[in-house]
Design goal:
Helices cover 29% and strands 23% of the residues. Helix 3 crosses helix 4 (92-99) and helix 6 packs parallel to helix 7. The chain has one domain: Peroxisomal Thiolase, Chain A, domain 1, CATH 3.40.47. By secondary structure, the chain is α/β, with parallel strands linked by helices. The mean pLDDT is 95. It binds oxa(dethia)-CoA (UT7). Oxa(dethia)-CoA is lined by residues 29, 33, 37-38, 114, 153-154, 157, 193, 220-221, 223-224, 227, 257-258, 261, 285, 315-316.
Length: 332
């Protein structure tokens, strides 16, 4: 049987920074409130002509270069995004494949909001274990600034832009294998976090550009409570099912939505500070890109070593959630 190994990581963050101070001139908020309630100090904002696929391509190039594989070795690209270059079609993954110069490759997007990276990791794992594919490029990429309402202080303080990519490859070596991935969803909570306009569910006239803009809306506090409850239960169960103690986790890499959510889950697992990977202060919430951007951060700091175990967890619109136990297994 083939196993799925997490071979390499890459990420891209736009250069423009939007600080809490700047936001406090745009909406009724303060640096103190944002820092205390979220842990975010600043976020990156893509240039006007910079697309989600442009950022995904930059992250992918790094992941490919670090994998030791040639781009021609890839047989699939999956992109997780809620801010695609084009709503409906073509998929951002196909645009990325073209920009990478890859032809005749399977490419598609999935929509699982902030849980997107954990979802595409689980799809890649399953397709590799089935023997269908050998080397899959997975990308979480978001230009959330394009769907953020900068007059809504409940959301605009949270979100930023960026991309992260990883290569998942077939291996015979069980020690290199991704151990387990949990994914779940509960559509009963769909209205807590959504872009209500623009789709076939929209109550607005599709020709009314103003009304059909795709800004995110969130019931923040309710989302927060479900996030803490669901994630805590899920990561505890995942470790228990796999007989793994929390001391064995080298890096807890949570979706970077809010420092208080990360802390609550970390505390439930009795994790030490040095086990928890935090990028929320400098990137904010980049949805499907946040986990691979955070993995890339520890990789570039030389903190992620071959064979080390990562615990990933994520929660987002849908509502969706997931967690994954992933050893870092670069080609030697
Ligand atoms: O990534 C995917 C999933 N998303 C999440 O996980 C996000 C989850 N939610 C959150 O991170 C938090 O709920 C927020 C950061 C969005 C909000 O924090 P909170 O502690 O839940 O605040 P709240 O919504 O309960 O609001 C508390 C107060 C309210 O004022 P009153 O009614 O007490 O007078 C809000 O109007 O804070 C006010 N408020 C603000 N004040 C200053 C809300 N947003 C702001 C703001 N600046 N930006």
């Amino acid at each position: 049987m083939a196993y799925a190994a997490f071979r390499s990581i890459g990420a891209y963050a736009p250069t423009d920074i939007l600080t809490n101070e700047e936001l406090s001139k745009m909406v009724d908020t303060t640096d103190e409130w944002i820092t205390k309630r979220t842990g975010i100090k600043e976020r990156r904002i893509a240039a006007k002509d910079e697309t989600t696929s442009d950022m995904g391509v930059e992250a992918a190039k790094k992941a490919i270069q670090r994998s030791g594989l040639a781009k021609e070795d890839l047989d699939m690209i999956i992109c997780a995004t809620i801010s695609p270059d084009y709503f409906c079609m073509p998929s951002t993954a196909t645009i990325i494949s073209n920009k990478l110069g890859l032809r005749n490759i399977t490419a598609f997007d999935i929509s699982a909001a902030c849980t997107g990276f954990v979802y595409i990791l689980s799809i890649a794992k399953a397709l590799i274990e089935s023997g269908m594919k050998k080397n899959i490029l997975i990308i979480g990429a978001e230009k959330l600034s394009a769907i953020t309402d900068y007059s809504d202080r409940g959301t605009c303080i949270l979100f930023g832009d960026g991309a992260g990519a990883a290569i998942i490859s077939a291996t015979d070596n069980k020690d290199e294998a991704i151990i387990d991935i949990h994914t779940g969803a509960d559509g009963e909570y769909a209205d807590l976090l959504m872009t209500p306009n623009g789709g076939s569910g929209s109550i607005h006239d599709s020709l009314d550009q103003e009304a059909s803009s795709c800004f995110m809306q969130m019931k923040g506090n309710e989302t927060f409570k479900v996030a803490v409850r669901t994630l805590t239960k899920d990561v505890v169960e995942n470790l228990k099912e796999n007989n793994i103690e929390s001391e064995a986790i080298n890096h807890f890499v949570p979706h970077q939505a809010n420092y208080r959510i990360i802390k609550a889950v970390g505390d439930a697992l009795k994790l030490k500070e040095e086990q928890v990977v935090l990028t929320v202060a400098k990137y904010g919430n980049t949805s499907g890109a946040s986990i691979p951007m955070a993995i890339n951060d520890i990789y570039e700091q030389g903190k992620l070593k071959s064979g080390e175990l990562m615990l990933l967890d994520a929660f987002g619109g849908g509502l969706t959630w997931g967690s994954a136990l992933v050893p870092f297994s670069p080609l030697k």
